[in-house]
Amino acid sequence: MRHLNAHRKLGRTSEHRMSMLRNLATSLINARDERIKTTVQKAKELRPFVERAITLAKRANLLEGDEAAAQSLHLRRQAAGFFHAGNARRSEEMGRGRKQADVPRTAGVAALKRLFDDLGKRYAERPGGYTRIIRLGHRDGDNAELAIIELVGNARDEAAKSPKKSAGKAGKKSAKAGTKAETSSADSTKKASGGGRRSKKTEQTAAEQDTE
């Protein structure tokens, strides 16, 4: 029986665990390099949590028709539950006579905006698997196993793909050039060796004629 074994409890209450996952999801979406470092157990719990939010953004990006705006708003409100709102301080600062453009967006609002504006379009044709977990080994002190969880298709992945193609073409060209150089050098050595043999034969014939 697997009663009460749906998720890893992580030694926290339900409210504390959900708040931690929302913090991790907000940090992952807002990270410049689209990766964060945490423990393996937290990363495994964060992975389906974030991917559900990305699926909502992808569904909103594929909507068409007259009711697309209303359905997109509904999906956006559903995805907002995966992040900490963080709107209280922004609303207070706006109430002091400051304009909306002057007040910076909080992390939760910025993560939700990036989720629907950028990630929903990036993963529009991807059926799933939006994140990747890379194990780093154990941490000194408590010996906890660390890992990096990152979004698939980030700038690092794109940069890793392009040099491989160019390097492969350059390697093929250099290999062809090397084989041509080797064949030309072998031909030159053969000619040189053949020329030496002919010169020896001609010297022998010349010496025989002189003796006669």
Please sum up the structure shown.
The chain is mainly alpha-helical. It contains 6 helices and 3 strands, in the order H-E-H-H-H-H-E-E-H. It has helices spanning 14-30, 40-61, 68-79, 88-94, 107-122, 155-211, and strands at residues 35-39, 131-138, 145-151.
Broad shape: extended
Binned strand content: 5-15%
Strand/helix succession: HEHHHHEEH
Low-confidence stretches: none
Q: Count structural domains.
A: 2
Distance between the termini: 112 Å
- From the 3D structure, determine the CATH topology of the largest domain: 50s Ribosomal Protein L17, Chain: A
Rg calculated over all Cα atoms: 33 Å
The CATH architecture of the largest domain is: Alpha-Beta Complex
As laid out across the biggest beta sheet, the strand order is 1-3-2
| Helix residue percentage | 55-70%
Per CATH, the superfamily of the largest domain is Ribosomal protein L17
- The CATH class name of the largest domain reads Alpha Beta
Number of helices: 6
Average pLDDT, all residues: 80
Strand runs, count: 3
Q: What's the main sheet like?
A: 3 strands, antiparallel
Class of secondary structure makeup: mainly alpha
Describe the structure.
With 212 residues, the chain is mainly alpha-helical. The protein contains six helices and three strands; from the N terminus they run αβααααββα. It has two domains: 139 residues, Alpha-Beta Complex (50s Ribosomal Protein L17, Chain: A), CATH 3.90.1030.10; 59 residues. It is 62% helix and 9% strand. Helix 2 crosses helix 5. The radius of gyration is 33 Å and the shape is extended. The termini are far apart.
